[in-house]
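seq:
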Amino acid sequence: MQNTSPTPVPSYNTKGIQGNANPAYLEDQQTLEEIRSSLDDYIAVNELENQFQTKLTEEGLLVTIRDSILFESGKATIKAEYTNLAKDIGNLLKFEKPRQIVVTGHTDNVPINNAEFPSNWELSMMRALNFLKVLIDTNNLDPQLFSVKGYGENKPVASNDTAEGRSKNRRVEVLIQPLVLEDGTSVE
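struct:
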């Protein structure tokens, strides 16, 4: 994923830089790792390892959710049986210190053109927006901390030449951004 941050966030790697890194930065990275651990525990307890992935990236903690668990093909409404899952994820996004969160929708490259969505861009954007609404509306989260993006088929993580690759490209991502940059600068 390219820079999805409202504020540029430099690369970080807490392994091997402990002596040089800003203490506030290292503390924030540790907090992100703890958030990741909580999310990973939720994923394991609910046996969602095939649908969810978490990883620390240059831009923060990225949670990837396969679209098949949330949406019917060509639809942007969250499946009723997974609304509680979205609520649970929202509950895990309550932090002691508020963080900026970006929800991003992605599709494969199979063209869509129906009355509801003239392109994959609209579909990806509405999926991200609908997921965001459930997060905020069911958890009393501050909407000012959230933003939404839709990339359509334009940021694939796998080849669209196979069904497996297309499946990986259909996803919603939740990016939990850091509070402190590597140089110690606070992110507003």
